[in-house]
Amino acid sequence: MGGERLRALMLGPPGSGKGTQGQRLAARHGVPHLSSGELLRAHVRDGTVLGQAAADTLRRGDLIADDLVNRIMLEQVLAPNAIGGFVLDGFPRTVAQATAAYDLARRHGITFHAVVLLEIPPEQLLERLTVRGQLSQRVDDTPATIRHRIDVYLDHTSPLIDYYRQRDVLEQIDGTGTIDEVTAAINSRLDHLLPPPTVP
Ligand code: AMP
Question: Which fold has domain 7-191?
Answer without folding.
Answer: Rossmann fold (3.40.50)
